[in-house]
TrEMBL record:
<feature type="domain" description="PAC">
    <location>
        <begin position="221"/>
        <end position="273"/>
    </location>
</feature>
<dbReference type="InterPro" id="IPR035965">
    <property type="entry name" value="PAS-like_dom_sf"/>
</dbReference>
<dbReference type="Pfam" id="PF00512">
    <property type="entry name" value="HisKA"/>
</dbReference>
<dbReference type="InterPro" id="IPR004358">
    <property type="entry name" value="Sig_transdc_His_kin-like_C"/>
</dbReference>
<keyword id="KW-0597">Phosphoprotein</keyword>
<dbReference type="InterPro" id="IPR003661">
    <property type="entry name" value="HisK_dim/P_dom"/>
</dbReference>
<protein>
    <recommendedName>
        <fullName>histidine kinase</fullName>
        <ecNumber>2.7.13.3</ecNumber>
    </recommendedName>
</protein>
<dbReference type="Pfam" id="PF08447">
    <property type="entry name" value="PAS_3"/>
</dbReference>
<dbReference type="Pfam" id="PF02518">
    <property type="entry name" value="HATPase_c"/>
</dbReference>
<dbReference type="InterPro" id="IPR005467">
    <property type="entry name" value="His_kinase_dom"/>
</dbReference>
<dbReference type="InterPro" id="IPR036890">
    <property type="entry name" value="HATPase_C_sf"/>
</dbReference>
<dbReference type="GO" id="GO:0000155">
    <property type="term" value="F:phosphorelay sensor kinase activity"/>
</dbReference>
<keyword id="KW-0808">Transferase</keyword>
<dbReference type="InterPro" id="IPR001610">
    <property type="entry name" value="PAC"/>
</dbReference>
<feature type="domain" description="Histidine kinase">
    <location>
        <begin position="403"/>
        <end position="619"/>
    </location>
</feature>
<dbReference type="InterPro" id="IPR000700">
    <property type="entry name" value="PAS-assoc_C"/>
</dbReference>
<feature type="domain" description="PAC">
    <location>
        <begin position="347"/>
        <end position="399"/>
    </location>
</feature>
Length: 619
């Protein structure tokens, strides 16, 4: 080949290469040259994107290529070399400023005359911005997908109906509950208007008017609508329609939710009906009916109450009614009421109320805790009757008993003293027969005296004349005295007293002794001779507790709480032969109550009974 020609050809090649280079440099961010096997980068003009290489380097892969993409790059190189074709690859690079970027790189092989690759000439573009946009787009898509899944879960798991109307009144969304109600699928229901989804004309018109109104006002609408349901009968729905605004603030759709409130409405109606029925009954009766709420304030008094007191209901509400109670009953009854209230237990009590004529009337009240439908405590309801006449009768009877007892007491006392004197004289005259008869007479008179004293005590108690003379004493000593007396007077039973440690109380010593004696004499009275009676006093829960147990006839479960009522006696064939008036335990109860103690009985019929009382202790 002539030198000149060769030279010209080389020049031509250089020129064309330079032109090409200029073009590439103008259109690319990076240009590079590589050895035929890509091992050495002979030159890199990285623009401001990649660091330039002044000298050839063989570690360009580690220097510029992201570790995770290196393998990919090697593979692409291998293919390009093998096939002697263009290398083209998008991969991550380490940028000049140290951050990570994306590049799209292409390299062409340059051949010698033998067709061997003498060099690779490459150009690359920074595509980081596009990649970032693609990534952002993907992230946004993922977030939207996630949000869509969340909303779908919400809308498909609620029994409420959720839907969206386009402005042409067609449904653009309906949740599963709504599709199920229509009995339609998404494809057959979406894009359809109300009328096409089975709504009656009036109903469809109503909602379409509402859509117009929302578009015009941008305000939401709430309403209630009732219509018959094919399967469920008449249903009532509460719905709310909301404007969906676009970026310009214009309504672009109307979203709605609808809730089936038929059951709530039905329950409300039932409640209102039963409330009305209750009011009617309460107003029509002459029983005194009142209710209170869970905080013990009275909330209702029927007409009987307002008629009796001559006061409007509002004067009686909350604790207003207490002002009308007799001063002697106020504190006591409020205590009874509040105690029952706190314990959620029924109450049974009598008190006097001032009527419109300025007289006191006796009311007997039964109160019961009442509950809300869920079972939680709602307050009390009480029913009362006027027992003034009964009380007056009772008073007359009491007066009579008290008078008779008084009148009997004087002759009885003198009869007793005559008998005692006569007995003494008969004994002195060694007339044992007469002395024996007088002895028995004395015992009978003693019995009579005790009965009469009992009556006197009751009438004293009723007229409030019973006095508690409290003193500090040791129960152990009292038990010792009671024991001695019981052992002397008793012959027929095995009375066993437990050991008593010293327990100090502040009480009426004589009356407490009377209570214990009463327990013992009942135990004797209601059990067979020779059976065992146990008497014990001990400290239980910080209180002095006295109990007597017998092996007698026992008491029915239903009778147990009534034993302490006045004149109450168990009606039983076994009881017929045992005399008594049913006042002993009543007196015991009154005495213990006045000491802030408790009194009760436990029993099994045929096995025996145990009577208890407790007293507060002192240091
Ligand atoms: P009385 O014994 O005079 O009838 P109480 O008030 O002492 O009056 O007792 C009331 C009723 O309680 C008695 O009538 C009897 O039915 C019953 N009772 C009292 N103590 C016992 C007991 N230990 N065992 C069985 N029943 C008893």
């Amino acid at each position: 080949m002539p030198h000149d020609k060769g030279h010209a050809a080389a020049d031509q090649l250089t020129q064309s290469e330079e032109r090409y280079r200029a073009l590439v440099t103008a259109t690319s961010d990076v240009v590079y040259r590589m050895s035929p096997d890509w091992k050495v980068m002979s030159q890199l003009d990285g623009g401001s994107f990649l660091l330039d290489t002044g000298e050839p380097i063989d570690n360009w892969v580690e220097k510029y290529i992201h570790p995770e993409d290196q393998q990919k790059v090697y593979e692409a190189i291998e293919i390009a070399i093998r096939t002697k074709t263009i290398f083209a690859l998008e991969h991550r690079v380490l940028r000049a400023d140290g951050t990570l970027g994306w590049t799209f790189s292409r390299a062409v092989p340059l051949f010698n005359e033998q067709g061997e690759i003498i060099e690779w000439f490459g150009a690359a573009n920074d595509v980081s911005a596009r990649k970032q946009t693609e990534q952002d787009l993907q992230d946004a898509k993922d977030a939207a997908e996630h949000q869509k899944r969340t909303y779908e879960t919400i809308t498909s798991s609620t029994p409420d109906l959720i839907y969206v109307f386009a402005l042409d009144y067609t449904f653009s969304y309906a949740n599963e509950a709504l599709l199920a109600m229509w009995g339609k699928t998404w494809d057959t229901a979406i894009g359809k208007r109300l009328i096409e989804n089975g709504y009656e004309q009036w109903h469809a018109d109503m909602h379409e008017r509402e859509i117009d109104q929302i578009v015009a006002t941008k305000q939401s609408i709430r309403g209630e609508v009732a219509f018959p349901h094919a399967v469920l009968g008449r249903r009532v729905y509460d719905y709310i329609l909301n404007p969906v605004l676009n970026a310009q603030g214009e309504v672009e759709a109307v979203a709605g939710t609808t809730r089936d409130i038929s059951d709530i409405r039905a329950a409300e109606n039932t409640l209102a009906e039963s409330e009305a029925r209750f009011r009617m009954m309460a107003e029509a009766t002459n029983i005194y009916i009142a209710t209170s709420d869970e905080s013990s304030n009275a909330t209702y008094f029927n007409q009987s109450w307002t008629k009796l007191t001559g006061r409007p209901q509002k004067d009686l509400l909350a604790y207003g009614w207490v002002d009308l109670l007799h001063p002697d009953d106020q504190e006591r009854h409020v205590k009874v009421y509040e105690k029952a209230f706190k314990a959620h237990k029924p109450l049974h009590d009598a008190f006097r109320v001032l009527n419109s004529e300025g007289e006191y009337r006796w009311l007997l009240i039964d109160g019961f805790p009442r509950n809300y439908m869920d079972g939680s405590f709602a307050g009390f309801i009480s029913a009362g009757i006027d027992i003034t006449e009964l009380k007056e009768d009772e008073q007359r009877k009491n007066d009579f008993i008290s008078m008779v007892s008084h009148e009997l007491k004087t002759p009885l006392t003198s009869a007793l003293s005559y008998v005692q004197v006569s007995k003494k004289r008969a004994t002195e005259a060694n007339d044992t027969v007469t002395a024996g008869m007088l002895e028995r007479t004395e015992k009978q008179l003693g019995k009579m005296t005790r009965i009469i004293n009992g009556f006197l005590n009751v009438s004293r108690l009723e007229s409030g004349k019973i006095q508690i003379d409290a003193q500090r004493f040791d129960m152990a000593e009292l038990m010792e005295e009671v024991k001695e007396e019981a052992l002397i007077s008793n012959t027929g039973h095995q009375i066993k007293f437990g050991y008593t440690k010293s327990i100090w109380v502040n009480a009426d010593r004589e009356k407490i002794a009377q209570v214990i004696q009463n327990f013992i004499s009942n135990a004797v009275k209601y059990s067979r001779p020779n059976s065992t009676i146990q008497v014990r006093c001990k400290l239980v829960d910080g209180k002095a507790q006295v109990c007597t147990s017998d092996e007698g006839i026992g008491i029915n479960h239903e009778d147990l709480p009534k034993l302490f009522e006045r004149f109450y006696r168990v009606k039983d064939s076994e009881m017929r032969n045992i005399s008594g008036f049913g006042i002993g335990l009543y007196l015991c109860n009154e005495i213990i109550k006045r000491h802030d103690g408790d009194i009760w009985a436990e029993s099994t019929v045929g096995e025996g009974s145990t009577f208890y009382f407790t007293l507060p202790t002192v240091e």
